[in-house]
Amino acid sequence: MRRIRTFNAAPARSASATVDTVCEVVATSLAAASATSTSAVNNTLAAARPALLMLVSGRHLKTNPVVLVAGDTICEIYCRYDAEAVSGEENLNAVPGMSKADTFTLYLPAPAPLTSAIEDIATSDPHLTTDPAPSEVKSAVASAAAGTGLDLDALKDLL
Amino acid sequence: MSTSTATSAYTSTHTATYLADIILGTLTEAIGQLGLNPSEITRDWATSEAGIAQWIKERSLRQVSIEFTLPSGRTMVIDFNVEYSTGDSQTAAFSASKARISRFLTKYSALPSGTTYRLVANYNGYHTPMPGWGSTHAVKRTGLQTNSAGTLATAPGATAQMNISD
């Protein structure tokens, strides 16, 4: 299941308030997954905070999302800026579909010139990575292939 | 938690939040562009953000600078100058020149390992004391050449411009 959440950043919220809001929604969403540790989630979000501050204030999340993957749910996290952020509608409810997750990963974009700094942050926690986030299509194809014996390489040639 | 729709009346808080956010975001990227780790900025983010936003809101902030000191003793300074305007601030737009500023920053090559940096604010007269900020003297700029990157961001009632002196 693919979800998208877009948060109102500056001027509606400061970077730190935006990061607080993102972290709150992520934590609330993962709280539904009884198999994931609350302390692990909190540790991951604390580790990710400096990267999130840089990404939010650098306006990278306008087009290049942070991606939360938990179970079969993929949630892309964007921000909107400028006048659009003042009037933008946002959904701050928990992201549904994560209750069966037994682990989670937060995929951080690492654009230049912040690449090195964000990669350093990502290595500090096992639930953070700067690897490319999986897409719903890949997940669905892989899942289908596992169940049916499809030849993935042959399928890619057709796409 | 709920679904909400914000109103669209712009306030001095919007302007202060916007410019503080763009100044901090840009100086963080400048530090990265210069090959240094911006962890000192992210560590003190809340203090820096609160101070800059408060002083823009009360129109006391004249300039935020990040001063780099190289191991050789040479200095480099990036200034963010804030100018205030009067009139109908409700009709002005929020705009940022991120792409142009990013291109400007690529002209500068990495600073050597061991370079240190600090954030310094200058004011127009009285300013509210903010936690985590102390008094200091700005670095001497004798012999430094200044290049203007132009307007960094515009918000209702205020504009931020960026210069690099090295």
What is the average of the pLDDT values of chain A? 88
**If you compute it from the alpha carbons, what radius of gyration of chain A comes out, rounded to the nearest whole angstrom?**
16 Å
- Helix/sheet category of chain B: alpha+beta
Largest sheet of chain B: 6 strands, antiparallel
N to C succession of SSEs of chain A: EHHEEHEEHEHH
Distance between the termini of chain B: 48 Å
Mean pLDDT of chain B, as a whole number?
91
| CATH superfamily heading of chain B | HORMA domain
Return the CATH topology of chain B: Cell Cycle, Spindle Assembly Checkpoint Protein, Chain A
The CATH architecture designation of chain B is: 2-Layer Sandwich
Q: Provide the spatial order of strands within the biggest beta sheet of chain A.
A: 1-3-2-5-6
- Approximate shape of chain A: globular
Describe the structure.
- Chain A has 159 residues and is of the alpha/beta class.
- Chain A has one domain (2-133).
- In chain A, 44% of the residues lie in helices and 18% in strands.
- Chain A has a five-stranded mixed beta sheet.
- In chain A, helix 4 links the parallel strand 5 and strand 6 (128-129).
- Chain A starts with a strand and ends with a helix.
- The model of chain A is unreliable at 137-159 (pLDDT under 50).
- Chain B is of the alpha+beta class.
- Chain B has a single domain (12-126, 138-165), classed as HORMA domain (Cell Cycle, Spindle Assembly Checkpoint Protein, Chain A), CATH 3.30.900.10.
- Chain B is 29% helix and 30% strand.
- Chain B is built from four helices and seven strands.
- Chain B has helices at residues 12-33, 39-43, 45-57, 98-105; strands at residues 3-5, 61-69, 75-84, 95-96, 116-123, 146-155, 158-165.
- Chain B has a six-stranded antiparallel beta sheet.
- In chain B, strand 6 (146-155) and strand 7 (158-165) form a beta hairpin.
- In chain B, helix 1 (12-33) crosses helix 3 (45-57).
- The longest helix of chain B is centred in the first third of the chain and has 22 residues, at 12-33.
- The interface between A and B is large, with 40 and 39 residues.
- Strand 4 of chain A pairs antiparallel with strand 1 (3-5) of chain B.
